[in-house]
């Protein structure tokens, strides 16, 4: 497959030296081996891969995304599949699992609105260690999730209009190059210039207010 890609796009071959190319192909073989230990792709026919989805919620919030894979059973049931190149989070890292499922519920909600069908199963495939994480969503749960997304968007709007962005310290702060400007580290943020497209913010705010 690599040779086919190079034949189609010859510029790709020049972007990697011999060591980088070997490392890339070794990692790809590992991930593909992990996948084939979990599924036989000859035994099912996905309805779509990299499916673009777009829906508008009640307050005008527009959701867009790309779903890795959508399977449809003969009975019409939907299964949403997402591939992860990392390893499955250990039981102690419940937050990582929560974040992954947040993404999957996002996809399920878009399908519920666009197709009127509740996905029967959300599946995460962790290729690095050949693990599966399955979840069966509930319709009422997804509708509540939609309200959560709208509340998050209203919070983003408020922050965008007022410049009130609260620090949220975590272990990731060690990677941040802006600690000198962060109140959590005793810094002072620079003056807030406002959102580049403030008119859009106002328009969405009006939609939100009218929906309320």
Automatic annotation (TrEMBL):
Recall the GO molecular function terms of this protein's record. helicase activity
Task: Say if the entry is tagged with keyword DNA repair.
Answer: yes
Q: Where is the PD-(D/E)XK endonuclease-like domain?
A: 20-183
The protein, known as: U2126v
Q: Where is this region: Disordered?
A: 193-212
The protein's matches in InterPro entries, at most eight in alphabetical order, are given as: PDDEXK-like_dom_sf, PDDEXK_AddAB-type
Q: Which organism is it from?
A: Mycobacterium leprae
Keyword field: ATP-binding, DNA damage, DNA repair, Helicase, Hydrolase, Nucleotide-binding
What's an example GO BP annotation here?
DNA repair
Query: Mind telling me which Pfam families this protein's record contains?
Result: PDDEXK_1
């Amino acid at each position: 497959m690599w040779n086919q890609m190079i034949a189609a796009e010859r510029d790709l071959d020049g972007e990697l030296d011999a060591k980088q190319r070997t490392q890339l192909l070794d990692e790809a073989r590992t991930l593909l081996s992990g996948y084939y230990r979990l599924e036989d792709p000859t035994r099912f026919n996905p309805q779509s891969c990299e499916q673009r989805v777009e829906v508008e919620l009640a307050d005008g919030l527009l959701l867009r995304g790309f779903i890795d894979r959508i399977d449809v059973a003969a009975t019409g049931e939907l299964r949403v599949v997402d591939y992860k190149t990392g390893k499955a989070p250990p039981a102690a890292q419940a937050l990582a699992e929560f974040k992954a499922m947040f993404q999957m519920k996002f996809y399920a909600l878009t399908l519920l609105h666009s197709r009127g069908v509740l996905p029967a199963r959300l599946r995460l495939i962790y290729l690095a260690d050949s693990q599966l994480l399955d979840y069966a969503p509930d319709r009422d749960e997804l509708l509540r999730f939609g309200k959560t997304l709208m509340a998050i968007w209203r919070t983003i709007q408020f922050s965008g209009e007022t410049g009130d962005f609260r620090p949220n310290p975590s272990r990731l702060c060690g990677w941040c190059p802006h600690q000198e400007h962060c109140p959590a580290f005793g810094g002072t943020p620079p003056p807030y210039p406002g959102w580049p497209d403030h008119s859009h913010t106002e328009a969405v705010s009006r939609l939100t207010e009218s929906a309320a």
